[in-house]
Specification:
The protein is built from 3 helices and 9 strands; from the N terminus they run E-E-H-E-H-E-E-H-E-E-E-E. With about 150 residues, the protein is of the alpha+beta class. The strands form 3 sheets. Strands 4-9-8-6 form a 4-stranded mixed sheet.
Amino acid sequence: MKVILKADLEGIGPAGTVVDVSPGYARNYLIPKGLALVATSKNVKGLEKQRAEIMRRVDKEAKRIRALGERLSQTRVVVAKQAGEEGRLFGSVTTRDIADALEMEGIKVDRKKIVIEEPIRTTGHYLIKVKLPYQVEAQVQVDVIEAG
């Protein structure tokens, strides 16, 4: 089924393009969420008129995401966890812990966008990657300390 994307969708395409997706995905997800329109001849003609508006909105959102990436790169958060001998944690630091620490700093990031290469199981300083839309990646400095 051909649809016109109203927003950038990772793995599918940028806003303002006509793409072919499965009918169920279009009917059950993309169209009800307002992420796409059915690609009828009328909608395609309307798209040409709206393309400038869509591109302006996409550029504005991309600038906001880049600014968020800059802010994240300059942010240092502290996560306190219970630890035993030699700074070994009881459990590990999760993406949820980092997302909560960022939220306490006033930065809201979906925990699914936080990438931890291997589990953090000891106290120390870590650089954690955050993947944002528009191919923006930021490195957040996370300090894991012993709660006490």
